[in-house]
Amino acid sequence: MHLNIVVAFCCFWLQAWAAKDYLFKNCDQSGFCSRNRHYRRQVENSGRHIPYFVDPSSIELKNDKLEATLYKKLESNELVKLPFEFSLLKGDNVRLKIDEDRSKVRIKGLNTKRYDETAQAIFDGPEEDKYVSLKEKVDIGKDSITIVYGADKQFKAVLDLNSVVLTIYYQDHPQVSFNSKQLLNFEHFRSEEENVQNVHSELESTFDMFHDSFADSKDDSLRLGPESVAADIVFHNFDHVYGIPEHADSLSLKETTDSSWPYRLYNVDIFEYYSESRMPMYGSIPIMTATNPTVSVGVMWMNSADTYVDVNKASKPKSVTSHWISEAGVLDLIISMGESPATINKNLGLLTGYVQLPQLFSLGYHQCRWMYNDEEDVLDINSKFDKYEIPYDTIWLDVDYTDTRKYFTWDPDSFPDPQRMLRKLDHTGRNMVILIDPHFKLDYEISDHIDKYGIGQKNSRNETYKHHCWPGESVWIDSLNPSAQEYWDKLHESSKDNAVFGEAQNVHIWNDMSEPSVFDGPETSAHKDNLHYGNWEHRSLHNLVGKSFHELTYNSLVKRASNDQRQRPFILTRSFFAGSQRTAATWTGDNMAKWEYLRTSIPMTLTLNAVNMPFAGADVGGFFGDPSKELLTRWYQTGIWYPFFRAHAHLDSRRREPWVPGEPFTSYIKDAIRLRYSLLPAFYTSFYESSTDGSPVMKPLYYSNPENEDVYAIDDQFFLGNSGLMVKPVTEQNARYVEVYIPDTEPYYEFTDGFPQADAIRLSSPGTIKKSVDLGTIPMYLKGGHILTRKDRYRRSSRLMRHDPYHLVVALDNSGSAQGLLYVDDEESFAYRSGNFAISAFEATGNTIKGAVFAGNDVIRKELDGIVIEKITVLGADDVNAAEVSQDGKKWEAAINRKDGILELVGPKLSINKDWEVKLRKSTRHDEL
Ligand code: NOJ
């Protein structure tokens, strides 16, 4: 090819791929990010920095926190006063907060305080309840404050008053420090005229302080001028850091300092995102974690403004430096420390809350596409699942079920009688999810109401904000306005008169486009100088908006009934923030039907799981485009492991429901979906555990094997919660084999496609094995030491499985033991909160297998009566072939099946609501007679 043609082709190709980059600011194009990076370079090069110090005479212990004044010293020697707090919160969480007194700053119609409500929005419950008394823990010296904490006083936080460096020690070794690189930067308030005296000329840049020079952002009024907050946090003796979703990137975060793209946290509607990128996406959770074999750390940067995070790694001594840069708000930081990665989830969850226990149906398979055209289409899809004997729970309707994209209406031609359709779905135990977005088309009842009562987002002139989204010109509900809640409640009421929901119980909600997406807005979102309730600028709380929207919906849905029997709401949100897990599930947005998006879906979902947002998944099949039959099959085989398992497709893509590709693909897809259903007890139990301690449902290997640093960057393999199932999905085209990493020396029993086998991989040291695969193969293993619970009958939906018997798979470890857990409740209501649940703890040791049942009340015990364990499969018990079963004072011999080296107890008929015991033994002559 001629060189010019090659160049032209390459440019075209690059352009085609870089089509949307121009919409989003990288660090160099963003005033506050670029200024802070400039500052970092100047500090590094000159060894000088802007002085900050805490005035020791100002320190006071007030309501369990230390309050003081921190000073920033300007070049003119003038001091800027910054109120400062230092405290200890529940769960061994140290908090440090820096604010600015802007009470003298007055700008008409604008709240001029720094936004300090992010923490309250993140916290589950009142902030005041989170503090731990500092009595006998704190020592205030002349130059430093020391807090010693932890059950064994193993942690120590030392704040140097002269440098504002905070170092946290574990057993006297420094693990993490704040501001040790002296990158703390607090751009205090000044007017454009005063600016010259307020800038350290050699250290600071003035780029875009009062004006925004970027594309569609040029009309940003920036009425408060520069107000960024930034600081460095160094993880000492760590190689890997994780978290800060949402990015289409690896689990272990990459170095960014030489790129224009630090990890950016700014919720946006990113069209056709890249499969490997640090660009902003729909949601953000400002939590970063780090793990080494001795200790784990979590950092939560409680700021909801546009934020960039640079990551830089050093090898001698080994450390990871993160540089956090936010456009506005207060600096409010939590540093959490614990002995394992799981402790960090638990401890941060004491502040942020854990995932809400989902209804069981929502862990089943969700069938979605944009768009199922009408009632007939919906019911036809519904019956095809039965025809092909594929279980599913929920069918979804995308934006066009509405009358011309006016939410809270149904299109009268396509859906003339929604209640009839919902009833028909209900007959087979199925549900429907419908989409409700936060924007409302102009000139209909709802937008008129929002405008008239002033409960919409406002522009900087305090008029209702009007811009474009799906329906054309629209207004946006301000979900931070308490009066919006009342109106939203009314719209969601369950009653005969409610035209959208009626009294149906099987209709649930999808809150989409909630970043918010504004088609003609800067960077596809709302203008940063918009106003919310309280006259807060959108700039300061942008990343919270999606969360506040799905919470608005949640609050309305829980009001539908007033007792325990009400259903736990199911809401899918596209935009999220720290704390979203309490009320919604999420997914990774508009991916593409390409292999690389299948691959990236795994680290993306693992990352969300690692920061307490486990109810997540990716569009199975890929949203844009048409997957090949092979890709579609592999995507289902991977998708069954996403905690949230939904197929979805764009309007322009071809139909691809499981039966569409035909054989052998349809059978493989069916097998995969059926496997998901048989594992629902394990998924539900994992969610129960996560709802009490934050443990990931899709669990990275560094949780199971924190002692083995070789697993720290593995992000194509994972465990299902604490079930012991380890999976390595096939994500390469035409794969003939996969490499599976075996992280320890326990037996890993072959469980390919969900069938227990006696063969186990037993390595003398951790390492990689090769496993051959064909198109039907889902490589998976059950780790010795676990007891897995499953239900094997095919049913049309999860609701119909309720009374089905259980099958226990006992996988013995090297010492002949195993443990497992099963959580059971009514699968849909909040009654479990008042005791209507049961937990079975299973244990195998020395040829005895036991089930001990804790039932929270008699109601559940009665409900579970008659539900039995019909089979127990034992892996690794080579020398036994008889079993005596006992329950309720009765004893009987179990029928035994020994095939292919597996021991099966067939039909032991053990009720799951009472304790039981099985004694395995070698058969005697007497047994055989
Ligand atoms: C954007 C969502 O990401 C996508 O899943 C949905 O189909 C479209 N909005 C249309 O509502």
Describe this structure in words.
The protein has 929 residues and is of the alpha+beta class. The protein is 19% helix and 28% strand. Strands 6, 7, 8, 9, 10, 11, 12, 14, 17 and 18 form a ten-stranded antiparallel sheet that branches. Strands 1, 2, 3, 4, 5, 13, 15, 16 and 19 form a nine-stranded antiparallel sheet that branches. Strand 24 (466-469) and strand 25 (472-476) form a beta hairpin. Helix 6 (375-387) packs parallel to helix 7 (418-427), helix 9 packs across helix 11 (545-558) and helix 13 runs parallel beside helix 14 (665-678). The longest helix has 16 residues, at 31-46. The model is unreliable at 1-19 (pLDDT under 50). The structure holds 1-deoxynojirimycin (NOJ). Residues 370, 398-399, 435, 512-513, 574, 589-590, 623, 648 line the site of 1-deoxynojirimycin.
Question: How are the elements arranged and paired?
Answer:
Layout: H1 3-17, H2 31-46, E1 52-54, E2 60-62, E3 65-73, E4 79-89, E5 93-98, H3 118-122, E6 138-140, E7 144-149, E8 155-160, E9 165-170, E10 173-178, E11 185-186, H4 195-198, E12 229-236, E13 241-243, E14 263-265, E15 287-291, E16 296-301, E17 307-315, E18 318-326, E19 331-338, H5 341-352, E20 365-367, H6 375-387, E21 394-397, H7 418-427, E22 431-435, E23 439-441, H8 445-452, E24 466-469, E25 472-476, H9 482-491, E26 507-511, E27 531-532, E28 536-537, H10 538-541, H11 545-558, E29 571-573, E30 585-587, H12 595-610, E31 616-617, E32 619-620, H13 629-639, E33 645-647, H14 665-678, H15 680-693, E34 698-699, H16 701-704, E35 718-720, E36 725-727, E37 737-742, E38 748-750, E39 760-761, E40 767-772, E41 780-783, E42 786-790, E43 806-811, E44 818-825, E45 837-845, E46 848-855, H17 858-864, E47 868-875, E48 882-887, E49 890-893, E50 895-899, E51 902-911, E52 916-921, H18 925-928
Helix pairs in contact: 6-7, 9-11, 13-14
The structure holds 1-deoxynojirimycin.
